[in-house]
Design a protein that fits this description.
Order of helices and strands: HHEEEHHEHEEEHEHEHHHHHHHH
Largest sheet: 5 strands, mixed
Low-confidence stretches: none
Mean pLDDT: 83
Structural class: alpha+beta
Strand content: 15-25%
Number of strands: 9
C-alpha cells in the first residue's frame, strides 16, 4: 500500500506559490533588460504575424481542416518588407492563393505595406540637420535579427530629392487668389553664385504667407520681375494697392513699379538704408550718423523725419558726398509707412525687412549643412523645404487686429485716388 503524499504545511504552500509567481516576472525582467523598445518591437512583430495568420485562417480555414467549397488555400510564406522606424524590415508574409491560382492579398498586409512614411522621415531628418551619412544612426534601434535596408546614403538622398522636388512643384504652382494681401516683403538669400528671391505676404488678418521663390544670379530687375510675374499669374491682384517692403535695391523698386504702378506703396528698409550710408563713412563717424538716422526714423512724423535726414545729408555733402548721395537716394520711400499712421508696433514691422530676414535666417540654418551645391535646382529644392519648415512657426504680426484695418483703409484710399485720376483722364463721369 502506497503512502499518501505528505501535505505541505501552510507556510510551505505560500512559499511554493510565491516562487511560481516570480518565475514569469523574472523572465519578463530579463527581457526588459534588453531594452523596452526592442521588447516592444519583438512583441509587435509577433502580434503582426499572429494577425496575418488569423486572416489567412479566416479565408482558408484551419490548417489540415476539410472545408466544403473552398475558395482559397494556403501557399506557404514569401519574403516581404514593411516600413518600421525609418527603415525597411524583412517580414515573412503568409501567402494565400485562390482556387484559380491567383494571389490574394491579406487585408492587414495591404494596409501596412501601402503606408510608406520613409520619405517623410527622410525629409524630416534632413531638415533638422541629420546628414545622409548619419541617417541610420539617428533611427531607433531594432532587434539585430531583423533584416533591414533603406538607410544608406544613396537611398536616403534619392527619397529626399524626390520628395522635395515634388513638394516644390506643387507648392510653387498653388493658387494665391484666395489670399487678401495687404503687404508683400521681398528679399534675397545668397548661395555662392546664386541668389534666391523670397516673397513674403501679409494678409488682412496679419497672417504671413510665403508667396514664392525665384533663383537668379543677382537681385536684378529681371529676377525680381520673374518672381512678381509668377505670383501675379497665380492670383495676386495688380488692381489693388499693396505695401511693398524691400531692401535698398533700385532694381527691386523698378520691377515692383513696372507691374503695380502707382498701386505699389514702396517702403525701403530703414535698416538697409542705415547700413548703406555707414558703408560710405569712416569708422569713427558711423555710430553718430547711424544714431541720427535712428532718431529721425523714431519721430513718427514724416515731415520732421525728412527735415532731420536732409540736414544730415547737407552736413555730409562736403567731406563725404557718397554717403550724402546714398542717404538722399530713395529717402522719401524710407518714410512711406510713417505716412500711414499705423500703430507703432505695426509700423516698426513694416519699416524694415526684418520679418523676412527671420525667415531667411531659418533657411540659412537649415541649408548650412550642404557643403556643395550642384546646381540652382538643388538650391531651390532646399530653400523651398526650409521656408516650408519656417512657415510652421509663423505668428501673426503685432497689433494686427487694430493696425491691419488702418493699413487696408490707407490702401483703399490710394485705390480711390488712382481710380479718380483714371476717370478724369478718360473723361468718365
Amino acid at each position: 500500500m502506497e503512502k499518501a503524499a505528505r501535505k505541505p504545511k501552510r507556510g510551505q504552500e505560500e512559499s511554493v506559490f510565491a516562487k511560481q509567481k516570480l518565475l514569469p516576472m523574472a523572465a519578463l525582467m530579463f527581457t526588459l533588460r534588453r531594452g523596452l523598445r526592442e521588447f516592444a518591437t519583438e512583441a509587435g512583430m509577433q502580434a503582426l504575424a499572429a494577425l496575418l495568420e488569423q486572416e489567412r485562417t479566416e479565408i482558408c480555414g484551419r490548417r489540415y481542416e476539410h472545408v466544403d467549397r473552398r475558395v482559397a488555400s494556403r501557399s506557404g510564406h514569401a519574403p516581404g518588407e514593411l516600413v518600421m522606424g525609418g527603415r525597411r524590415v524583412g517580414v515573412r508574409r503568409p501567402r494565400v492563393r485562390s482556387v484559380a491560382g491567383k494571389e490574394i492579398a491579406l487585408p492587414s498586409w495591404r494596409q501596412f505595406s501601402s503606408d510608406d512614411p520613409l520619405t517623410n522621415r527622410a525629409v524630416e531628418e534632413m531638415i533638422i540637420g541629420v546628414s545622409t551619412r548619419k541617417y541610420d544612426r539617428a533611427l531607433e534601434e531594432v532587434p539585430p535579427e531583423l533584416r533591414t535596408r533603406g538607410t544608406s546614403k544613396s537611398a536616403v538622398s534619392r527619397r529626399f530629392v524626390a520628395a522635395t522636388m515634388a513638394e516644390m512643384g506643387h507648392w510653387m504652382e498653388r493658387s494665391l487668389g484666395q489670399i487678401e494681401l495687404a503687404s508683400i516683403l521681398i528679399d534675397g538669400l545668397a548661395f555662392t553664385d546664386h541668389v534666391v528671391l523670397v516673397a513674403l505676404g501679409v494678409d488682412a488678418n496679419g497672417k504671413k504667407h510665403v508667396l514664392g521663390l525665384h533663383e537668379g544670379a543677382t537681385e536684378n530687375a529681371s529676377a525680381c520681375g520673374a518672381l512678381l510675374d509668377n505670383v501675379i499669374q497665380r492670383g495676386v491682384r495688380i488692381d489693388a494697392s499693396k505695401l511693398f517692403v524691400i531692401d535698398g535695391s533700385k532694381a527691386l523698386a523698378k520691377a515692383v513699379r513696372d507691374r503695380f504702378g502707382d498701386r505699389a506703396l514702396i517702403q525701403r528698409c530703414q535698416v538697409h538704408k542705415k547700413r548703406n550710408v555707414r558703408d560710405h563713412l569712416p569708422e569713427y563717424m558711423r555710430s553718430s550718423v547711424s544714431a541720427t538716422m535712428s532718431q529721425a526714423y523714431k519721430t513718427r512724423d514724416a515731415a520732421r523725419a525728412t527735415k532731420l535726414l536732409e540736414n544730415l545729408a547737407r552736413s555730409l555733402d562736403a567731406d563725404h558726398p557718397g554717403a550724402a548721395a546714398s542717404l538722399r537716394e530713395g529717402l522719401a520711400e524710407t518714410l512711406t509707412v510713417m505716412r500711414l499712421d499705423l500703430p507703432e508696433s505695426l509700423a516698426r514691422i513694416f519699416s524694415t525687412t526684418n520679418a523676412i530676414e527671420n525667415l531667411n535666417g531659418t533657411a540659412r540654418r537649415i541649408c548650412r549643412n550642404v557643403t556643395h551645391w550642384q546646381d540652382g535646382t538643388m538650391i531651390l529644392r532646399w530653400t523651398c523645404a526650409a521656408v516650408r519648415e519656417a512657415e510652421t512657426n509663423f505668428r501673426r504680426v503685432s497689433s494686427a487686429k487694430l493696425g491691419m484695418p488702418i493699413l487696408f483703409n490707407a490702401l483703399r484710399k490710394n485705390d480711390l485716388r488712382i481710380d479718380d485720376k483714371i476717370d478724369a483722364k478718360t473723361g468718365t463721369m
